[in-house]
Write a structure and sequence with these properties.
It is a single chain. By secondary structure, the protein is α+β, with helices and mostly antiparallel strands. Helices cover 26% and strands 33% of the residues. Strand 7 and strand 8 form a beta hairpin.
Length: 150
């Protein structure tokens, strides 16, 4: 089946899409990773935040959030990167990053892109041109490291 990649400004997202995004983020980050934290952080509907989604039929398989550089101090910030558990192993992670970087460049040309990576994923993000920017730190008891591209 074909994957339908959709990137929408928050003002263009329908309530069903938003519900699917929040449901999948909770499924992965709160339930699967056993991490009690405030996922709905007030940034989903702010500024020029955009949401990249990969749909197959009516199922959300992959997602990431792009926060605009004006609200983030100069960098586009990629966050909430995830693949649904039953969609892993299909290469969607790399395609998700490629799509995310493509849209970041389209919306904010030549602006550096930053992300807070789980430390064990440094090589994964490194394959997409990200380099370590800062020191490792704990976020919700999970080691993270800042990474920047551009």
């Amino acid at each position: 089946m074909a994957i339908d990649w959709i990137c929408k400004h928050h003002s263009d997202i329908g309530k069903e899409q938003l519900y699917a995004i929040l449901q999948l983020r909770t499924e992965v980050f709160v339930v699967e990773q056993k991490c009690a934290y405030q996922d709905v952080d007030g940034q989903d509907l702010e500024g020029d935040t955009c949401h990249l989604m990969a749909w197959e039929d009516d199922k959300l398989l992959a997602y990431l959030r792009l926060l605009d550089p004006q609200s983030q101090g100069g960098d586009v910030v990629i966050g909430r990167v995830l693949i649904a558990a039953d969609a892993r192993g299909r290469g969607l992670g790399h395609e998700l990053m490629e799509q995310g970087l493509k849209y970041a460049e389209e919306f904010w040309p030549e602006v550096p892109v930053y992300l807070s990576a789980q430390a064990h994923l440094q090589d994964y993000y490194g394959r997409h041109g990200f380099k370590v920017a800062g020191v490792e730190y704990l976020e919700d008891d999970i080691p993270h490291i800042g990474m920047r591209r551009g």
